[in-house]
Design brief:
alpha+beta, 36% helix, binds protoporphyrin IX containing FE, Cyt_P450_sf, heme, monooxygenase, Cyt_P450_CS
């Protein structure tokens, strides 16, 4: 889950988002300086990890809702990524978006331990695609995995012409 699945599905979901927004892909092909902001935006736009659960260890209140000790709550990270109170035009893909305070790597004491590695992996993938397949296109509508928590694709078929 941590070291492999999340990164694989950021790449799948992210490349699909770029294929559906060819103008954004062309920007990225033309300007490798956008890789760092693009990585954050792809994680925000279609995050592979849609929810994480927490269990209250004591009675508490979250956003005005009482949460008794022992109750589980789910943080919907995917919904937070499209919060219009935080992001301007949240449904737009913008590879230069800055600032980008997404929660795709979680927050607080359990913030993703592998975030620095994941950022390098996704940026390296974008760079490899830029060099090898600058004209890539979607070859077929990709089937999604039926999972809810881990959002991703079964496969992503590309064509180069
Ligand atoms: C882009 C890819 C990745 C995403 C989107 C991602 C996302 C996340 C998220 C949301 C959490 C928080 C879980 C929680 O709050 O309970 C987390 C935790 C974690 N991630 Fe990642 N992750 C990615 C890649 C990686 C990689 C490559 C590694 C390891 C090489 C890794 C290792 C971990 C570990 C060990 C934790 C648990 C940290 C803790 O509980 O203290 N992740 N990740």
């Amino acid at each position: 889950m941590a070291g492999h699945e999340a990164t694989v599905n950021v790449i799948g979901n992210g490349v699909l988002a770029l294929l559906r927004h060819p103008g954004q892909w062309r920007r990225l092909v033309a300007d490798p300086g956008l890789d760092a902001t693009a990585v954050e935006e792809l994680i925000r736009y279609d995050p592979p990890l849609q929810l994480f659960e927490r269990t209250a260890v004591a009675d508490t209140v979250v956003a005005g809702h009482p949460v008794p000790a022992g109750t589980k709550i789910a943080a919907l990270l995917g919904a937070a990524a499209r919060d219009p109170a935080v992001f301007a035009r949240p449904d737009d893909l913008d590879v230069a978006r800055r600032p980008n305070p997404h929660l795709g790597f979680g927050a607080g004491v359990h913030y993703c331990l592998g975030a620095p590695l994941a950022r390098v992996e996704v940026a390296a993938t974008l760079d490899a695609l830029r060099r090898a397949l600058p004209g890539m296109r979607l070859a077929a509508e990709p089937p999604r995995r039926p999972d809810f928590v881990m959002r991703g694709l079964r496969e992503l078929r590309l064509s180069t012409c």
